[in-house]
Amino acid sequence: MQRTRFGDMPCSIARTWNVIGEPWSPLILRDIYVGVRRFDDLQASLGISRKVLAERLTWLVDQQVLDRHPYSDRPTRHEYVLTPRGVELCDALLVLARWGDRWLAGADGPPALFRHRSCGATSHVTLHCSHCDQPMTASDVDVLDGPGAPAREETP
Amino acid sequence: MQRTRFGDMPCSIARTWNVIGEPWSPLILRDIYVGVRRFDDLQASLGISRKVLAERLTWLVDQQVLDRHPYSDRPTRHEYVLTPRGVELCDALLVLARWGDRWLAGADGPPALFRHRSCGATSHVTLHCSHCDQPMTASDVDVLDGPGAPAREETP
DNA sequence: ACCACTGAGTTCCCTGAGGGAACTCAGCTG
DNA sequence: CAGCTGAGTTCCCTCAGGGAACTCAGTGGT
């Protein structure tokens, strides 16, 4: 956890960052998303320190991004699964992956491909407007104060 | 910078994380995106330490996410602007913001609203498939090895 | 009954990154 | 020429991340 707490800032990016912004968190999410669900498997797959992995998992469960799910009593064993919140966070991972594929993949090409299950094509995500369904990207957006914005001084 | 380097992993999420995964980076990007461009303004707006701010800006310029742009010689003054790469990273911020709005905004509602310039509506982004244009989210995707994936052992 | 093994964490110590405040430095401004 | 401003540096301190070893419950093998 970094020194400054982002969770209290009046900014949804900062708050989201507070949840998954720590080192390793998105990679843990990615692994669980693709089916690596157990502590030791995660540790081996990521090469993360066990200490940090334990910390992150507890945090992500606290944040209701993951659920700790027993798959065996006697002995007690469990695996981590994504909650609906967690699955939606993976949407953001798809966008990050797309950016990395576009700008950082070397001559080898992208390390992973994404197949859209409903149309069967290997493709990638694009951003659209929830209202008009047309493409909508950062260059096409104005940011306005919302109801949860901090009160600001009058500028008469 | 965290101890482990994510940039060398064969994973576009990890590589992207290597670029903007450090604490403060996405918030710096957000600020520049909404028009805060100068060192002192950024420092004041974020409450970040000047040391860390200087480090992050240099790093983001190195990564070609930002451009250091002089707006005055004599005295030399400059401001930071987004490169095309940087603007596309802001797409990811829109998705993070959407998640935060949906799951973390309190009773006050979202701190910011996003207006789609071309249709004028206050809306948010949704993910679509680049191939069929239909909605495409993490729950609707299969992840496959790509050309840049590490060679894996035969499993005969 | 005894031993090794496995999954899932803890504990301990060391190093290095983040925070804060003060300092620098060039070029205006009054 | 004293002070101000933008844009960083420098210094020091603390605490989080890394690594490896340790724990602990339950199980399977002999």
Description:
Chain A has one domain: Arc Repressor Mutant, subunit A, CATH 1.10.10. In chain A, strand 3 and strand 4 form a beta hairpin. Chain A is 38% helix and 19% strand. The first copy, chain A, is globular, with a radius of gyration of 19 Å. In chain A, helix 2 crosses helix 5. The N and C termini of chain A lie far apart (41 Å). Chain A is of the alpha+beta class. In chain A, the strands form two sheets. In chain A, strands 1-2 form a two-stranded antiparallel sheet. Chain A has a two-stranded antiparallel ribbon with strand order 3-4. At the A-B interface, helix 1, helix 2, helix 5, strand 3 and strand 4 of A face helix 1, helix 2, helix 5, strand 3 and strand 4 of B. Strand 5 of chain A pairs antiparallel with strand 5 of chain B. The structure holds a DNA duplex (30 and 30 nucleotides).
In short:
The first copy, chain A, is of the alpha+beta class.
CATH architecture of chain A: Orthogonal Bundle
- CATH structural fold name of chain A: Arc Repressor Mutant, subunit A
Helix content of chain A: 25-40%
Pairing-aware structural class of the strands and helices of chain A?
A: alpha+beta
Oligomer: homodimer
Strand content of chain A is 15-25%
pLDDT averaged residue by residue of chain A: 89
Q: What order do the strands of the largest sheet of chain A run in, or round the barrel if closed?
A: 1-2
CATH class of chain A: Mainly Alpha
What about the largest sheet of chain A? 2 strands, antiparallel
Largest interface: A-B, 83 and 83 residues
In angstroms, what separates the terminal alpha carbons of chain A?
A: 41 Å
Global geometry of chain A: globular
DSSP helical segment count of chain A: 5
Alpha-carbon Rg of chain A, integer = 19 Å
